[in-house]
Amino acid sequence: MSAPEIGFDVPAAIGMRIDEVATPALLIDLDAFELNVATLKHRLEAAGVRLRAHAKTHKSVDIARYQLAHGGAIGICCQKVSEAEVMVAGGIGDVMVSNQVVDPARIERLARLATRARILVCVDDSGNVADLAAAARRHDVTLECLVEIDCGAGRCGVAPGAPAVEIAQAIATAPGLAFAGLQAYQGAAQHIRDHAARAAAIATAAGHTADTLALLRAAGLDCAIVAGAGTGSYAFEAASGVYNEMQCGSYIFMDADYQRVRDARGEPIGEFANSLFILTSIMSKPRAGAAVCDAGLKVMSLDSGLPVVFDRSDIEYVNCSDEHGVLADPADRLALNDRLRLVPGHCDPTCNLHDWYVGLRGERVECLWPVSARGKSW
Question: Residue 140, SS3?
Answer without folding.
Answer: coil
